[in-house]
Amino acid sequence: MNGVFITLEGGDGSGKSTQAALLEEWLTARGRTVVRTREPGGTDFGNEVREIVLHSRGHISPRAEALLYAADRAHHIETKVRPALARGEIVVQDRYLDSSVAYQGAGRVLDGDEIRSLSLWAAEGLLPQLTILLDLDEATARARLDGANKRFDRLEAEKSDFHRRVRAAFLELAAREPDRFLVVDAALQPEEIAAAIRARVEPLLAE
Ligand code: TYD
Fold it and tell me: Which of 9, 25, 125, 149 is the most buried (most CB within 10 A)?
């Protein structure tokens, strides 16, 4: 496999989509083929799962939720991400297994190591070369989401304590794997964030 697998992580409202778009633009301008994708979603099957996990009414048990994200991941990685990497393309993906460890592990209070193992089983062990964590304090993230004036999904609607746990879990994951993670302060200007990301991606392109 000689493509490059890059994931973006962070809380809701941290600006992942903006940065994914800027990174795709920059890579494309350099002549690279980019597959920009996301979890949950990214495939037709994944979009059906996405609808259930994000918009289903009523309670979903935490373990069922974890399995739904894992099911989306298994299908997405096998049918879309691995083939792109095998073609030597660059996959820029909004959220991956670290989101499961943070949201289902720390957020829903399941065992983080078990959640990680479940995701690795689903994805047959695939880890990104680089994971960009856009770190933002919970109050600023909430203010951004409120400003966007959109309907909250099931996860966004969770209380602030949930989002504080999610943020702490992301930072802990980054501290555990410093070689894989780049942590960027998401309160910076989008262009400053994009520059920090480009500096870290550049050496990966030469490999
Ligand atoms: P996303 O589409 O990235 O939403 P946003 O653009 O608002 O950040 O992700 C949808 C939600 O799914 C988000 O609240 C995080 C959650 N999520 C999990 O709880 N576990 C997971 O494994 C993934 C991939 C996402």
Answer: 9
4-205 topology per CATH:
Rossmann fold (3.40.50)
CA end-to-end distance (rounded Å), the chain:
12
Ligand 1 atom with least separation from CA of 156: 14
Mean model confidence pLDDT for the chain: 95
Which neighbouring-strand residues pair with 35? 91
Global confidence as pTM: 0.95
Q: Where are the domains of the chain?
A: 4-205
- pLDDT of 145 above 90: no
Residue 99 CA to ligand 1 center (angstroms) comes to 7
Q: Which of 175, 185, 201 is nearest to 14 (CA)?
A: 185
The Cα–Cα gap between 106 and 128 comes to: 21
